[in-house]
Design brief:
Elements (H helix, E strand, L loop, with lengths): L2 H20 L20 E2 L2 E2 L2 E2 L5 E2 L8 E7 L4 H17 L3 E7 L12 H11 L6 E3 L10 E5 L5 E6 L4 H21 L8
Parallel strand pairs: 5-6, 6-7
Antiparallel strand pairs: 1-2, 3-4, 5-8, 8-9
Helix pairs in contact: 2-4
Amino acid sequence: MSASRRVLLLLLHLASVLLAACGTEYDDRFEGVMSDRSYGDQLTADGCRLRPDGRGEPTCIDRFAGRFVWADYAAPWCPPCVDQVPALKQLDAELGEEVVFLTVMTSVTPGYRSIPAAATAAGWAERFDLDPTRVVAADNLWGMTIPTHILYSPTGQSLYRSTGYLPAAAMREILERRIADWRRWQATGDRADWMR
């Protein structure tokens, strides 16, 4: 085997290891499905997925029903997640009456199955001076690629999903378009190109 082929195989192996270490993608089968009102399967016939917030109180995303919710999935060890916080705080200050900005902690460390708890949510809220009722710990998302962003409608549809750092201007543009498209759909039934 040639040296260049060995190097290529080594690089492919390293890339696969890095991708596996970064986690798995969040299930986006709900994005743009206007008939789904489950907040991405968090509401089921059996009830709602409860998660502890930064005060240790069990909470469900449906407590924000009637408002748009921008859920930011993060972890304390994730540099892009830390970098994302100023943009989220800026938009919260500008759009907080219309959009709830919720942070979902997915892990404690980058290690295998480092399940966060209320203390993880509380620590993140304190670290960035966030409302602890809007920072929750998820026990089932430890392998998720982060930061991930999901926008939910006031009636529970998943309107947008992406992974990676987003500057405030990009987030604002996404929010303005998806909110306007959703409102038009609510009023007229006209579907935007991203709606299914």
